[in-house]
Specification:
three-stranded antiparallel beta sheet; 353 residues; six-stranded antiparallel beta sheet; 12 helices; Beta-lactamase; alpha+beta; AmpC-like
């Protein structure tokens, strides 16, 4: 398996990965059915032929699905087709799948409060926060403190920083959606408390081994490993595609929990929630983003880590199409140009024509 170059340019664009495919989208139309005729990856191939350029230094894209003639993997710039790369916040969807499996096993209910299981970590003010609110980012937990600590230390430091910076604040869970990585730290710790085993072991036992995701694992590189259940995975385009297909096809979750993948809460998006179209919620109780891209409803997740911007998206229905990608943006490229590049790529892979 080919590793990515270690000397990558650092991307300093807050929220790029999550905002990339939502910029400029209007009101969400109804889902568009995929065409019956098979599609080719020609549009993606043509885009890759123009790279590298002054926006994207390197690109790796995999397009697959029942609506595609054959799986296609293409590259541009210094990245191999089988490269392992840090997937950033795409990790959250893996974490959420493990927690939803525990819901299916009745270890905990999706609308059960979290604090009784982690009373030493979750302050009493957040006693009403439920599993569902962790998953769909309506918990109103504080933002994660970026400290070089273990996951429990990160959660504790986050609550301490919030208490010091906003004394007397009364949280209002369930009222607004604000994308927040601390939800995934707590979700990972909840998995450990419910099972009595390390999160990494449960992830391997429940997801990675059953799906034969041999090139996917929690990173051992400190700068990436810090983010753990929130953003600590490394993977390949082929493994990400296999995971997304299994998730959407119901191989990981029974029907009662599968439906949570597509349940977006009926609450507004917070002003700082730049991941979604302005003022709206777009994250489901399964961790997926549901957005409308040029008239096509797509579901997926994005992430940034180690200088790479990655993502997985798919259409649903009988002609499901999927894309898994990672891009290394040029350090001098404008944020809008980078957002446009991601939107163009996902559209080329998934949009009807």
């Amino acid at each position: 398996m080919t590793a990515l170059p270690t000397s990558v340019r650092r991307l300093v664009v807050s929220g790029l990965a999550l905002a990339a495919v939502t910029a400029g989208l209007g009101a969400a139309p109804a889902a568009t059915a995929a065409p019956a005729s098979p599609r080719s990856p020609d549009a993606v191939r043509a885009l890759l032929a123009t790279l590298p350029d002054d926006v994207t230094d390197a690109a790796l894209v995999r397009v697959a699905g029942r609506g595609v003639r054959a799986s296609y993997t293409g590259t541009a710039g210094p990245v191999a087709a089988d490269a392992r790369f840090p997937v950033g916040s795409v990790t959250k969807v893996f974490t959420d799948a493990v927690l939803l499996q525990l819901v299916a096993e009745r270890r905990i209910g999706i609308d059960d409060p979290v604090r009784p299981h982690l009373p030493e970590l979750i302050p009493a003010a957040w006693s009403g926060v439920t599993v569902r609110e962790l998953l769909d980012h309506t918990s109103d937990l504080p933002r994660p403190a970026k400290v070089p600590l273990d996951p429990r230390g990160v959660v504790a430091a986050s609550f301490e920083a919030d208490a010091a910076g906003r004394p007397g604040r009364l949280p209002a869970p369930g009222t607004v959606q604000q994308y927040n990585g601390l939800n995934s730290f707590v979700a990972g710790l909840l998995v450990e408390r419910l099972t009595g085993r390390p999160f990494a072991d449960e992830l391997d036992r429940r997801v990675l081994r059953p799906l034969a995701l041999r090139d996917t694992a929690l990173s051992e590189e400190p700068a990436i490993a810090w983010s753990w259940a929130e953003g600590g995975l490394v993977s390949t385009a082929a493994d990400l595609d296999r995971f997304l297909r299994a998730l959407l096809d119901g191989r990981l979750l029974p029907p009662a929990q599968q439906r949570h993948l597509f349940e977006i809460p009926a609450v507004p998006g917070a002003p700082e929630n730049t991941s979604c179209p302005k003022g709206t919620a777009c994250f489901s109780a399964g961790g997926l983003m549901g957005i409308d891209l040029n008239g096509t409803r797509v579901w997926g997740k994005t992430g940034s880590s180690g200088g790479w911007t990655s993502g997985v998206f798919a259409t649903t229905g009988p002609h499901q199409r999927r894309v898994a990608y990672t891009l290394r943006p040029d350090a001098e490229a404008a944020p809008k140009a980078q957002r446009d590049r991601v939107e163009t790529l996902v559209g080329a892979a998934l949009n009807d024509r």
